[in-house]
Design a protein that fits this description.
- By secondary structure, the chain is an all-beta fold.
- It is built from no helices and 29 strands.
- The chain is globular, with a radius of gyration of 19 Å.
Length: 332
């Protein structure tokens, strides 16, 4: 609600009841069978959007602050979060800062390290489960970090430069099991309308550049096994490529329901798709190369910024959106 109040000769803008947006969430697969999840949320208020990180031991209690196991206010909103161990969270914020937080037993998150190598907002993070982290940024770069150790000193180990505009997402190559990642091969998607595949041993040049001609920004990217790569576009289309032959997609420009594709998550040949229109779609890559939509749920009333499978409950999908909600949906 926005209102104007007259104070003397001045007109003061008063803003109340601003929504709280879910910007990112990530499950802690290093702490199974426990179900720790970190959630980043923010509001369009203050100099830094009133950012906050919260840890929950039961996702069904999220995003209620009073039910969180740990929490901390952040200097800026964090569009990306992940885990680098059973008790350590990594975040990327709107000022380009990466930070590592220690989950303490007293219900707090204590920052143990920070670094501001990016020149603009961090758009996404991906963690390989072994201390490796990829960060994608509005400054047009992707950086590789290694955050192993009890109190890591943050410094990137490689920078991937080649995109000519904002990089929205970057992902480590996954094998048949989505929980395992290879730090050797990296994929990224950008506002410049391209998907790039990189060899981390040669970060100064991408191994392949794939333009999504006529579809605008490449908003997000995700691996479907070792050699297949899914990419979403701002016009709501999905593509799947075989990275051994990138000259033509095996799934060309398949339209999804719900507007721009904003979030992806994979599990083998299954793909979850979150859209700007609040839809969460569960898809399967069929033998003929098509993405078959197995289910489509209007899970949110605003953009779906995070989507994934609940580790402790098979065939259960968790999503977070700019409507401030975290939705847990059972699928068949």
């Amino acid at each position: 609600v926005v209102a104007f109040a007259a104070v003397g000769a001045l007109h003061v803008l008063q803003v109340t009841n601003l929504p709280t947006m879910i910007d990112a969430l990530a499950f802690n697969t290093a702490d199974l069978p426990k179900e720790s999840v970190v959630v980043s949320r923010s509001q369009l208020t203050g100099n830094t959007w009133n950012g906050e990180l919260l840890v929950f031991t039961d996702v069904e209690t999220a995003p209620s602050r009073s039910k969180s196991a740990a929490r901390v206010k952040t200097r800026s909103a964090c569009a990306a979060v992940g885990w680098v161990g059973a008790r350590q969270v990594v975040s990327g914020d709107d000022e380009g800062v990466l930070a590592v937080w220690e989950w303490k037993g007293d219900g707090t998150l204590e920052r143990v390290s920070r670094c501001s190598e990016h020149d603009d907002m961090v758009a996404s993070l991906d963690c390989d489960g072994l201390g490796g982290v990829l960060s994608a940024s509005y400054d047009g770069s992707v950086k590789l970090w290694h955050l192993g150790g009890g109190a890591p000193s943050l410094q990137s180990t490689a920078t991937f430069s080649g995109h000519t505009d904002t990089v929205y997402s970057a992902r480590f190559q996954r094998g048949a099991n989505a929980s395992t990642a290879s730090a050797a091969i990296v994929a990224s998607s950008s506002l410049d309308g391209t998907v790039r595949v990189w060899d981390a041993r040669k970060p100064y040049s991408s191994s392949a550049v794939v333009p999504l001609v006529g579809h605008g920004a490449a908003t997000t990217v995700e691996w479907l096994g070792a050699n297949r790569l899914a990419a979403g576009a701002v016009d709501g289309t999905m593509f799947v490529f075989d990275t051994r032959r990138l000259d033509a997609p095996i799934v060309p420009a398949q339209q999804m329901d719900g507007g721009a594709v904003r979030s992806l998550a994979s599990r083998g040949a299954e793909l979850l798709v979150g859209t700007d229109g609040g839809m969460v779609l569960r898809c399967t890559l069929a033998d003929d190369g098509q993405l078959v939509v197995a289910s489509a749920v209007a899970a949110h009333t605003d953009s779906v910024r995070a989507v994934g499978w609940r580790p402790s409950v098979p065939d259960t999908v968790v999503s977070g959106g700019w409507d401030g909600k975290i939705t847990v949906t059972a699928t068949e």
